[in-house]
Design a protein that fits this description.
heterodimer; A: Rossmann fold; six-stranded parallel sheet; two-stranded antiparallel ribbon; about 10% strand; globular; B: about 300 residues; Rossmann fold; 2 domains; four-stranded parallel sheet; about 15% strand
Chain lengths: ~325, ~300
């Protein structure tokens, strides 16, 4: 099998003229990226990705049947980005915002505490105060988010400057439009703060696409600050390739084009995504001769997530006084 | 030692001995913020921020999360309208939300007199309405040190509403509640200095005043002296260098009325924008304004008319 045959195929991405330039499944692909991950590491990333995805699907089910009634920001379709970073950019301080369940899980946060947080229980990672948007785990360490979009960027910069620790600051394509994000990134460059800024660019602010909101490109803006910046699709091999390229040269910025499969908040779906990276990863692993391993991983990780949520119903029933529609009485969460 | 010298010395020790940090804009400019900042380098802990206020406050908050207990200097309190977001929505909430301390020492400095609609006066009222951050308005060295000690003994952020008129003060100010009086004045920040002048003028008219200095604004410290004085005078006035409407003065007056059952008025900045020309200024109530307000309240009280209108 040649390297070329392992390259992603743009045929999987439907044409969408509304989207800003650069929105395609192969964006930024370089052939040498295929060498960025060993088979072992690729499978390990996949294992985490599957767990993240299955966790999110379990959350979606809990939202749909009203076990979870607070605003919930799911990352189905984006679950592999955090998994890849956790394997290639280890042990940073983490500052993210909503849609960050995969960061919490991938970097070692306690899944049960996240589950309980989403259920509003005292045993949640923020005792039920944080909900989906303000999750944290000091042990990772992942810091909570206040709810003001993008405010994690200057806070991450300050933490990196004061501590000298490598830091990961994650935002979305809407949050990076907050004015203080630019100035904080400019300051990070001036002070050479050791921060990797990641923009998970799903092209949507709720439902408003980037092209409607702005005519500039975030990567161009960051480059104008003098910072190293790349604009790439959400291929794990490509992400890993660029992390490895960084070596220890920070700050840097990655704009990662990705697709959100479900609603901004909640478990609904507006139709098929532009591309389905999860499927593409499966094809890649099969092409690499790792098909049997990936199927085994899917079975294990999927079961692990399901088991985690199986216990949730009992916990909710015993700790939360929620009103349950009668037709859900006999339905099982799992 | 003046208040400015005290702050400078404490800051020097914090940076040199405690691995502390000081963040601010144009810190190393002429004057070093009224002489309150030691002439130290970035390597020694003085971190010059860019002029981006919201980002700068966020940077300071992030540094606080790492435990270096930074001092964050806001040169004009009016800039809190920019700076408030990270301080009040993150630093003040961090411990409550996530049990993660974010000890940030905010030095927010009021100034007034011909400096226009933004940079004028104090703005501690906007901070007081948010949970998770105590508010203090020190004017003397000992008062400031009390706030600093509190910061050292706790892992919460604190908002120090300073006023440049306090920087040269090298003495302490005691409550004046001896003897009979017609009214209790509870004064905050620079209003304390103007209240002292007003009391002199009022005494010549035969109106006697008690004066209580309010330093801890939130939680408001209801000192015994305030309660005793109000019970004796039956009438109070809170004077502040922040706006009067929906701000610290009225909030404290409300609390005092409920605590003592006596009418307590509030006097602060007028409900209008300040301009640069003298005639458009809008600063801490002057001695003359305080005199008029007190005279009116006392006269009504003596005539047994309602003093609250």
């Amino acid at each position: 099998m040649t390297t070329a045959s392992l390259a992603p195929s743009s045929a999987t991405a439907p044409a969408n003229t509304l989207h800003a330039a650069g929105r395609d499944v192969d964006h930024g692909w370089v052939p040498e990226a295929i060498d960025a991950l060993s088979h072992e590491r690729a499978l390990s990333i996949y294992r985490q990705s599957v767990f993240n995805r299955e966790f999110e699907l379990q959350v979606a089910a809990a939202v749909s049947n009203k076990k979870i009634t607070t605003p919930t920001y799911l990352a189905v379709g984006q679950e592999h980005i955090a998994a890849t970073l956790a394997h290639t950019f280890p042990k940073p301080m983490i500052f993210a915002q909503h849609r960050a369940h995969p960061y919490y899980l991938s970097f070692g946060g306690d899944p049960a505490a996240l589950r309980d947080e989403l259920l509003g229980l005292d045993s949640g990672c923020a005792q039920g105060k944080g909900g989906s948007a303000s999750i944290h785990d000091p042990a990772i360490p992942m810091y909570g988010h206040s709810g003001l979009m993008g405010d994690q960027i200057p806070i991450a910069v300050g933490a990196a400057i004061a501590s000298g620790r490598t830091t990961l600051a994650v935002a979305g394509d809407a949050s990076v439009e907050e004015d203080y994000v630019f100035s904080a990134m400019g300051y990070a460059q001036a002070k050479q703060a050791p921060v990797l800024f990641v923009c998970e660019d799903n092209d949507l602010s709720i439902l408003t696409p980037v092209a409607t909101r702005r005519q500039w490109n975030m990567t161009d803006v960051v480059r104008s600050l003098g910072m190293y910046a790349v604009d790439i699709a959400d291929d794990p091999w490509l992400i890993a390739h660029h992390v490895l390229q960084l070596d220890t040269n920070l700050p840097a910025f990655f704009n990662i084009r990705t697709c959100r499969h479900l609603w901004h908040a909640g478990a609904g779906c507006d139709g098929p995504p532009e591309w389905n990276r999860f499927k593409l990863i499966q094809v890649r692993l099969d092409d690499l001769g790792l098909g049997s391993q990936r199927r085994e991983i899917e079975k294990e990780s999927s079961q692990r997530a399901k088991n985690l949520w199986k216990t949730a119903r009992q916990q909710v029933d015993s700790q939360v006084d929620f009103k349950r529609p009668s037709n859900l009485q006999e339905k099982k969460l799992a | 030692m003046t208040l400015a010298e005290t702050i400078q010395q404490v800051t020097r020790d914090h940076l040199a001995r405690d691995n502390g940090l000081l963040f601010g804009q144009c810190v190393t400019a002429i004057g070093w913020i009224g002489g309150t900042v030691p002439e130290m380098t970035e390597e020694e802990g003085i971190v010059e921020l860019s002029m981006a206020d919201m980002a700068g406050a966020g940077v300071a908050v992030g540094a606080a999360l790492t435990g270096r207990r930074p001092i964050y200097v806001i040169r004009y309190q009016g800039f809190m309208w920019y700076n408030a977001a990270p301080i009040l929505n993150y630093a003040a909430k961090s411990k409550d939300m996530w049990n993660v301390p974010c000890p940030l020492f905010v030095r927010s400095i009021a100034m007034e007199g011909h400096i226009g609609p933004v940079a004028s006066a104090s703005h501690h009222g906007m901070v007081m309405r948010m949970p998770g951050i105590p508010v203090m308005a020190p004017m003397t060295p000992a008062e400031w040190l009390e706030g600093w000690r509190w910061f050292q003994e706790h892992d919460d952020p604190i908002y120090m509403s300073e006023h440049r008129r306090g920087f040269p003060i090298d003495y302490e100010m005691e409550d004046e509640i001896s003897g009979p009086a017609d009214i209790t004045l509870i004064a905050i920040s620079a209003a304390r200095l103007n209240a002292l002048e007003a009391i002199e003028q009022l005494s010549q008219e035969g109106i006697r005043c008690h004066l209580v200095h309010a330093v801890w604004l939130k939680p408001f410290l209801l000192k015994d002296s305030i309660r005793e004085s109000l019970n004796q005078t039956g009438l109070g006035l809170v004077i502040d260098s922040d706006f009067e409407v929906a701000a610290a003065g009225r909030s404290i007056a409300y609390e005092l009325m409920h605590e003592t059952g006596h009418p307590v008025h509030a006097l602060g900045l007028e409900d209008r924008s300040a301009g640069f020309a003298t005639r458009h200024d809008n600063g801490t109530p002057t001695a003359e304004q305080i005199v008029r307000c007190v005279r009116n309240a006392v006269v009504k009280q003596k005539k047994n008319e309602p003093t609250l209108n």
